[in-house]
Structure formats: structure tokens, C-alpha cells
Amino acid sequence: MFYIFCPYCKEHREEEEFHARGQAHLMRPSDPDNTSDEEWGDYLFFRNNPRGIHHEMWVHSVGCRKFFNITRNTVTYDILETYPMGEQPTITAATPDVRHEQGVQVADGGWQTVGARSENKALNEETSS
Amino acid sequence: MSNVSVSNVREFNTVPDGNPKVESPLAWSYQQHPAPRASGQAGIVLREKALLGHLVLRGGAIVLDEAVRATLGMSLPAKPNALEHDDSGERSIQWLSPDEWLVIVPGGEEFKLERALRQVLGDAHYSIVNASGGQTVLTLSGDNAREVLMKSTSYDVHPNAFPVGKGVTTVFAKATVVLRRPSETHWELVVRRSFADYCYRWLLDASAEYGIDTQ
Amino acid sequence: MTQSNRIAAGGRVDRSQVLEFTFNGQRYQGFKGDTLASALLANGVNIVNRSFKYSRARGIVAAGSEEPNAVVQLGARDDTQVPNVRATQQGLYSGLVARSTNGWPNVQRDVMSWVGRLGGGFMPPGFYYKTFMAPASMWMTYEKYIRMGAGLGRAPTESDPDIYDHMHHHCDVMVIGAGPAGLAAALSAARAGARVILCDEQEEMGGSLLDSRETLDGVSAVRWVEQALSELAGMETVTLLPRTTANGYHDHNFVTLHERRTEHLADTAREAGFPGESRARLHRVRAAQVVLASGTHERPLVYANNDLPGNMLAGAISTYIRRYAVVPGQSLVLSTSNDHAYRAALDWKEAGRKVVAIVDARANPDGDLVRQARDSGIRVITGSAVIEARGNQRVTGARISAIDLERFVVIGKVEELECDTIASSGGYSPVIHLSSHTGTRPVWNEELLGFVPGKVKGMHAAGGVAGHYALSETLTDGARAGRQAALESGFNNAPDIVLPATRARRDAPACALYQVPHEKSALRAPKQFVDLQNDVTAAGIEVATREGFESIEHVKRYTALGFGTDQGKLGNINGMAIAARCLDRSIPEVGTTVFRPNYTPVTFGAIVGRHCGELFDPERYTALHQWHIENGAEFEDVGQWKRPWYFPRTVNGKKETMHEAVNRECLAVREGVGILDASTLGKIDIQGPDAREFLGRVYTNKWAQLAPGRVRYGLMCKDDGMLMDDGTTSCLGDNHFLMTTTTGGAAGVLEWLELWHQTEWPELQVYFNSVTDHWATMTVTGPDARKLLSELTDLDLDRENFKFMDWRDATVAEVPARIFRISFTGELAFEINVQANYAMHVWKKLFEHGEKYNLTPYGTETMHVLRAEKGLIIVGQDTDGSVTPEDLGMQWAIGYDKPFPWIGKRALSRPDTRRKDRKQFVGLKPKDPSVVLEEGAQIVFDGKQSIPMDMKGHVTSSYYSASLKHGFALAVVMGGHERMGQTVYIPMTDGTMHEAEIVSPVFIDPKGERQHV
């Protein structure tokens, strides 16, 4: 059971709130009609299965219903970062060393106090825009 | 009938002018599964806040904030998982996602509000969806409310992590609910109509060891 | 029987509370505070089980969860049976009933033990398969008897009267184990302000302190435990969970705990005085940090006949004496490789019984405890070990000899000592099971002669499990770990914790001893057991390595070392050491197998929790559910929905069969008027200036021209060109649409729309929201539908003003309603949508007015027949993810010339989707009109070919049509569209063969006249 930081809800949530949706950053060919059968087949059917750093798309299906990406180590199962659609990962297989430790992403809304002080309750009370 | 076309969207008041029989999502459950009489003080008090007006607002936070200020006199909570109430406590707005909010108002106000919002919002890109028939609100209070929630949801309901003024969409048993904390003593569950009976039966079961009062 | 082994004073049992219990049919007495194991030992019960493979007599070896032999079947009644309970973990209660899990007909005289003596006594790995091979047909017969002799208990045959539940927790610091390290860690984390959960698997918290000879701050260790627990219990942020085993350590610091809530008190929760409460609870803990303070397991030595009752772990003997006031024998020989085990002999002697000798494998042991033993007059024999236990059903003697560890041989003369108990200690293995669950590899520590946990993010190993064995070090390390864990979860003001003072004890280094050499080779010597629960011997491991199994993982699987519920608690390191010796490698080179969840057995009840019976899965109801029940509906599960399947009537006291009911319902729709609760259909509200453009991209057909007030049927494909869902979408306004989906596809389609919007076309201005539950939908259909509805609505239903595929806002029975003129039956039909809270009112009004038209409610079965007669597909029944719109003959619903390359379009021009011989959608008319083909049946073109036949398609839907008065089917057949009128064959498993003609899938009203009236 993963504990996943939703980049929209700004909190860690249990895995049961999410669905994994496969490899991230797949690009649908912009002109499908002029794409070869082989290229179209690659887009449809072929996926990476790396040992180590992998970028995956997930959706917070029981939650904000937003899609986002995860950089995950497929060996240790560490989630190294999560980031919204349209952004690029800061950690890739080419990153010389893993700079981010799991848990770096903390609830910046100040809601979750596992990992924070209960004195931060004051933060929780300024709820308006 | 009040069928008005504002811009290119069809508004529709689903509440009749007359007085035909109306049934809340839990009407049948109450009848079918009356709670066992609690011996002594019940640790759990469960109520349905039936037949309220539920609207789902979608759009940009800035545009919607202006509109709800103009119509409801409330600001739009922009912070994730925040829940705001008006002074009477009867009207609330809850953040659901970066472009989605749940507005709950007294039953019958929803259509007027929808129309007022549409008039303020004009040509902006937004959506307003009436969900009043599709969900209901359960309130949970009592000394053992937190234990019952801990038996039901994997979300952290400790007061440090779930202060008053917070609301989240999460897993409840095997269903999905919106869980919110309007006050120190009360929790609210916004439950989809079709799951209401299951959630109610689950709550009866989880509360059994503490005693439950449903009416 | 008296408690012959009970000491008069001391221990933590309450002698004033005598508890009666039954083991293997015999009645015994124990005290409150006993475990089943301590009570059995108090009563001098030697044999508690028969072994798994050799059926050898076995006694209690350990005092904790590592016990391999005393695995019992618990339960006084058939419905309260629990297999696989360790007697050492089972609190004693009055009326407890337990049995041995092995042994037939009983543990004293076991029939299977003759098998164990076959072939010179050694059964190599795979013995049963190798021995009972021939004739193959007899294996089933042999197996029946072999199984009767083996196994680890039986499942109850009646429903469990108890309930089990789950509870979710979040905490800053989860401390596993409440021994000295765990208590110190919990105190220091809690004092720092962290939310702490402390769990311990034993009946009482305190771990090794409960039987310690040492003092803390000058008072007994037990007193300090009480103080620590009372401080923790008084803190609001601390949750104490005694009698709770951490059984699984999963990703991202997710820990599952199994709490025994009433099973230590009585047979059922009701008898325990907690009716309605759960017998056991599974806690699901998400911890920011975990302190693993699981301590160590003592390693037994591997010598000949080390499984005879009377062979025990040295530490267990101390625990039984000091904690339970039970001395499990009269005369003791201790065989050890270390100082700490000397406690057993000291405790034994203090209890007033005879210590024959301590046999120490080290040449010059000189630690404090060694001196103490010598001073008290105990004979200490050095450089030696017990090489063999003597005895039949209980140890009667120990053969000891000097040994040469370098050369692994016995040297000098063998001496035989009379005794009834042999305690052994080969050192201590950190309990690394939980850390292994995370996938991390344990690390060999040469100084400790054991594996310690590898690095796990957010985990702090503390105390014994981290290799800190001396009490002062254990406490210090625990406090450090608790403080560090609190710090890492954000509590950086941890106060300094003052630890209790301990007496320094000097221990001499231990030596590495696992298997003890014998005069004979391992294969010829009496059996030397490594894994007592799985009956794995040193010889078995030796044979495995000789047969070519070099990887420890292979050795494990060949021999069963560390399998099953035991998870290698006592045997793993010894097994690896033996494999290493045989392979001439070091232990770290051989490596270790890792351990899996669960650490100890968990009942299925606890895993399931309350998700069983009526709460097994959500049941979704429509707003009309009550009416359906009151009107006798039979229900069908469609996803999580309960939908009326059919409404059987009782005619002349006889209830209709489904077939009769469906025929009646179908004819009512075709000839009069019927009504269906269609509320379960998915409904998605779509708003935004680009809504229309978006629809054009996700549907195969065109949406540019659909005017407000109109409805269109659409097909949705995945990008591989295969159909994924269908439904109608209505244009409510130029920027506003209402999409319907299949009942089962609702959530998936909404997510699909969001997927494409969020990831491919975020520039399109459109929002999607589910309104499935907001609307209730009632379909009124049949030739009389207009007459009925016109009585209740203000809408002009004239065919010219309200055409087929139109929708209008109106009122029905005074309730605002949106009416759609769409048809899934082929008849005139109106789908009425009202806000769900008013649905029951409208539905009942329709019936009030419908009586004169014989308005007939129908369910999903009739709906299926009616739509099939009309050739309308059901996605997921007539399609299976490999069917294109063209395969269905729906070219009319494909807009190849739409400007945007919509989802699925490109794939429809791939060679595979252009094949002429694809399976295509057709109707089948059986030659025999009474035949209703089987759904799923295969179709062949040549009925006379030999088996295996060339399969050319399959039946997807098949029914009897009351209107047509014959059976009919829908099917997919290779090249079917070009085969109209041809005969195909449907061979059945019973050898019969049906013939059918390929026809158009539209069986009724091919011109569509009926729905347009």
C-alpha cells in the first residue's frame, strides 16, 4: 500500500484513493492519419518496464479526480516525486544521485500533522482564499 | 415551471411547485433497518440532513470567488480541502479539487442560487451542476464518533490532522464519501444516494459496540 | 492431575485464580497469567504434537511466537475452531479446549510414525513423492492416509459466531515490541510530543524484562516496566496495544497489526463478556516513522535427537521459571556457545532442581555468569557440547563430547549424563522478519553471528534486533531510536531521557556453533533437526547441496526450510550455516532467504474484517428499490447495483418461473405498455463552449449539427479502434450536453473523458460531472405508452411535435421531468427523468394511471430480450474489447470525414482491423425453433469435421422470443456479414450439434416503424 502525495490536494493519501494509469509522458501522435502503422502500434501497445526510475501516470480517482505523474523507483518502491500534468520530472534515470528523499513533500496546506507539529494548528485555521 | 436558457446552458428546476411526496435517500433505510435501542448513553448519534440543495461549481477560483461573494456573501475556499460556512452555518462551500467546489444550501435555494450565479458569471467558462437528488448529508456525533470513523476510513481523523473547517473526498468502507468537520462535535458525511443504504448499514454495524441513536 | 512442575512461590501467575482447561481430551488446571504452554508444562505434559513429516513426538521448545511444535487447534465447539495457534501465545482461560494438530489416532500412539522409521530412518527431501510414486493411480489412495497423518490443523466446518474488524491509524512513531528497547523508544518519542503507537505480541508488555535477573535503578526490572507503562498510558497521544502482533510491514511504513481482543478470555466474545465486539482486530497503521524493537530469538543447537520432548531453548527455561513459576523438568544439562544462556542453569538451580552440567563449546569461558555458575557449584564442562539426546518419549540422557569446531569433528571420549531436560543456546538471532517484508536484504554481522535488518526508509532498528544485547545498551539504543524517530517526524524538542541505572555485567565473547558434530556422519547419525516445524534435518540440507541445490533459495524450496507458518524463526540461520559448511562458503556468501508476511498466522476473519455477509460489498439501490422489493422483484447484480431482473407473479398459487415471467413481460411491452427502472444508467453532465468539439473527438460519429432538443446515439472507442461504451447524448443547449453510459461503464467513461481532457486536450473548455444519482429514470414503452403518459404530463406528445430522438422539459405527475423519446426496445418509448427524491411519487402515479393499460413492470432480463430482438448490442456482452464499430455493422455511426482524428479512427485503418475475416456481428436463427443456444457456445462452419474443430465464432446473446415464438441469438462470426443465409453449426459439450442460419441481427421491425409511431 503506497502513500502518495497528491500534487493537487497537497497531501499524502492512501493508495486505495488512486488508480495507476500506466507509463507517463506518452505522446499521442499529433497527426494520426499520417502516422505509419508501426508508429501507431508503438504508441498503442509498447511500454517501458525499467528496473529503477520510472515515470507513471496516476489519477486521484477517489479525491480530486485529477491525473498526475509519479517518479517511482520500481526496485525500492520509493516515490521520489509527484508532479502535475504538463510538468516534467526533476528526477530521471539520468539523475546522477537521488537528491530527493521520500517524505520531502509535506503537506504545505498545513493540514496533515503527521510529520509536523501540532502547534501548526494555527495554520489550519486560515482557510479562506 | 422555470426553464430558462441563460447563455447556451439549459437550467432546470427539479423541485416541483406543488407538494408531491418526496423521499430522502435514507427514507427506506430508516424503515428497513431501525437502529437497535442503545442501552444507556449512546456513543454515536447519527442524523440525516435530508433534502438540502447541493450544487457543484466548476471553474477558475478567481471568477467563482467573485460570483459566490456576490450571491452568497461568502468567499470561495481556495486552499485544498477547506470547508467554509456562512454565519448561520446553513450554507457551506467546500474545496473538492483545484477547479471544483461543493456548495450546500437549504433545500429549495439551489435553483435560485444557480440562476443568480449564472447571471453574475455571464460568459465566463464555468459549470454548475445540480446534484441535490444524488446525495445526502449524514451527521455523526457522540463520544465514539472518531473510533467509528477509524473503523471506516483510512483517512487520518485525529484532530491534529483533521481540524474543524476541513473536508476531504475519501474512501469510506468500500464506498466513496465526502467527509467534513463543520464543528468540534460533529462530522458530516456527504454520501451518494445509491450508496446511502450501504453506508448507513455500515455505520450501524460499526457503532454497535458503542450504542447508536438514529432518531 | 496436579501441577507437578509448578514452583510454590514467584512468577507472575495469580495462584488464587485456578483455571480448568482441556488438552487432547484430558482435563488440567492452570493459573490466571499462564499461557497454554506454561500450563501444559506445569502439568508435566511432554508430548504436545507429532511432527509434520516423520510423526515424531514433540514437546514445547520455546516460550514465545517462535515456538515450532506446540501449534494447536483451539476451540470448544465446532464453530469456534481456530487452527494454527501457538500454545505459547495463547492466554489460558477457564474452559479452554485445545488439541494437537498432528497425530492420528493420537499423539501418544501415532500410526504414521512407522513411516518415519522406513528406510533406515532418513526420509530425503521429496520422500513422499519419491516413495509413493508407483503405481501412479494409487497416489490418491496413499495421499488420503498421508494427509490424515499430516497437516497443521483444520478449518471450522460451521460459521464463526464471532466478528472481526479493522481500524485505521496514523501516527508519528510506531514502536514494534515493548521490551526494554521498545519501552525506552516509546517513552522518548512520546515525551517529545509525537503520536505514538506501541504494540507487543505477548500477553503482557515488558518483553525480556519480565523474566530478567537484573535490576533497574536498584528495583526489579518488572517494577520499571510498570512505571513506564503507566506513564505511557496516561498520555493522550499514545496508544498501547498489548496482545497485538505486528504481522506485516508494507510499503511506505504501512504496518498491519493483529490484536487478540477476546480470544485470551473465552471461546467466544460473548462468553468473554463482550457480546457483539470483535474477537480480533486488524489495525492498519500508516506511520511516519517505525521503531523496530522486535528483539531476538535464541538459536537452538543442532544435535542428534534434538527434537525429543525435553529439549528446550535455554532462554525459554528462564522465562518459564521466572515468569510462570514452572520448572519443566527435574535435571538439566545446558549446552551453550555463550554466557547469556547460563541464566537458565542458575534459574533452574535456584528453583531447587538439579543442574547436571553446563556444557560450553568455548575453551575458556570466563564471564560474570560463568563465574557465578561455578561459584554455585555447577559443573562446567568446556570445549564440549551435547552431541546427542537419549530417550524415547522424553529425554533421559545427554551424550556429550569434546568437539573441534575447525575440523567439525568429535574428539576424545563421549560421556553420557543422565537428565530429563537439555537446554541449548547457539546464540541469538535478531528478529528481522518485519524489515524483510519491505524487500530490504538483511546484513550479516560477523561479531553478532547473525543478520541485522537492512536499511529501510523511515525505520529505526533498536535494541536486540540491532545487535545490542546488554540491557544497558538496549535501553540506550531504544531511547536513541525513539528520539531520532520523533525528530524525523518533526518533533525536534525531545527532552533528554534519563535511563535507569543497570548493573554492568561482563560477558565473554560467544563462539560460532550451529550444527554440532557427531561421531557418525549427518546421514548416519540420529536425526539432527534444523527446522522442527517442517521436519528439515541437517542431513536433508546436506543432501540438497549434494544434489546440486547451491542457492539458498533453492535449498529452502527443496527441503521446505523456513516454510509456512514458522517462517524460519528458529531454523533459518542454522540451515544457512549448514549449507555454507557443505558448500565450503561463508554464511554471508550463501546469503539468506527472506521472510514474508505474515509473521505469525492471522485468521481469515481478521483479514476480512466487517467486509463480509451483508456488508461484503456496497449494494447500490435506485430510488425505487423499495417498490421493487414490495412487488416481488428478483434482483440481478449489475456492477454494484441491484437491478430488478424480472417480476414473477403468482398465478393460481404458483409463482412464475423466470421464463414465464419474461415471456409475459415481453409481450406486455410489444402489445401494451411496460415500465423499466433505468436509473442505473450512467449520466454525465457536460458543460462548456468546447463540449461539442470534445464529443466529436471521443465519439466515432458526428456531433457538429446536433441541435438543442435532439438526442443522438454514439459509439465510444479506445484508440485501438475497439468499442468501449455506447449510449445516447442529448444536446441541452449549445454548450450543454447530457451523456448516458452503460450501467457498468459509468465511472470508467467519466474517468476516460477526464483523462483525455486533462492529458491531451487541456485547452478545450469543458467540464464533466456525474449526475447518475441525481436523476431517476423510468422508461415507459409499448404501443400504449403515449396514451398512458399523456394522462400525467403537460407535454404535447404528438408524434410531429415530439419526434423520435427528441427530448423536452415538462412535468409528469406535477414533478418537473425531462422526457427523452428514445427506445431500447424497438417500441414507442419515453424515458422520464426526475430528481431522484421525487421518483417514487412519479412511479406510483404512473401505476395508478397505468392499471387500465395493464402497465407491466419489467426487469433487466426482459430488457435484454427486447433489445436483442431489435439487434441492439450490449457493450460487454456482445462485445469483448476486440470488436470495432464496423464489425458490428455500424458504419453509419462512424464519421471518417470528421476533421479531428477522433479516438479510435487511426486504428480502424490498420491492416488487422480491415481484415475481411474478422468476427462480425450477426443474428442466428436455430433450425429447430425450440432451441435456445447457449451463450458463449462456439460456432463452426463444418459440422462433420473431426475434433479439434475449427472455431469460427461464438454466440454472444441468446433468448427465446415470445413475440417470434422461436429461439434466436446474436453472435460474432468470421466474415459473418458476407455469410447471410448460410448454415453454421454449434457443437455442444454433451455431443449434440445445433444448426442455425446466419441472419440479420434485427429480428423485429427492421424498418423501425414501431418506435416512430
UniProtKB/TrEMBL annotation, chain A:
Pfam families from the UniProt entry: SoxD
InterPro entries to which the protein is assigned, alphabetical: SoxD (IPR006279), SoxD_sf (IPR038561)
GO terms of biological process kind: tetrahydrofolate metabolic process
GO molecular function: sarcosine oxidase activity
Protein's UniProt name: Sarcosine oxidase subunit delta family protein
From TrEMBL, chain B:
An example molecular function term from Gene Ontology annotations: sarcosine oxidase activity
Pfam family, one: SoxG
Top-rank lineage group of the source organism: Bacteria
InterPro entries: SoxG (IPR007375), SoxG_het (IPR006280), TrmE/GcvT-like (IPR027266)
Any one biological process term the GO annotation gives: sarcosine catabolic process
Cross-referenced NCBIfam families: soxG
Name listed for the protein in its UniProt record: Sarcosine oxidase subunit gamma family protein
Organism: Vreelandella populi
Taxonomic lineage of the native organism: Bacteria, Pseudomonadati, Pseudomonadota, Gammaproteobacteria, Oceanospirillales
From TrEMBL, chain C:
Pfam family, one: GCV_T
Domain SoxA A3: 526-607
Gene Ontology biological-process annotations: tetrahydrofolate metabolic process
Organism of this sequence: Vreelandella populi
Protein name as annotated: Sarcosine oxidase subunit alpha family protein
Similarity comment: Belongs to the GcvT family.
Statement: the UniProt record of this protein carries the keyword ATP-binding: no
Domain of life: Bacteria
Residue ranges occupied by any Aminomethyltransferase C-terminal domain in the UniProt entry: 919-1005
GCVT N-terminal domain ranges (all copies): 624-898
Record domain FAD/NAD(P)-binding: where: 172-437
GO molecular function terms attached to this record: sarcosine oxidase activity; transaminase activity
Xref: Gene3D superfamilies: 2Fe-2S iron-sulphur cluster binding domain, sarcosine oxidase, alpha subunit, N-terminal domain, FAD/NAD(P)-binding domain, Probable tRNA modification gtpase trme, domain 1
UniProt keyword terms in alphabetical order: Aminotransferase, Oxidoreductase, Transferase
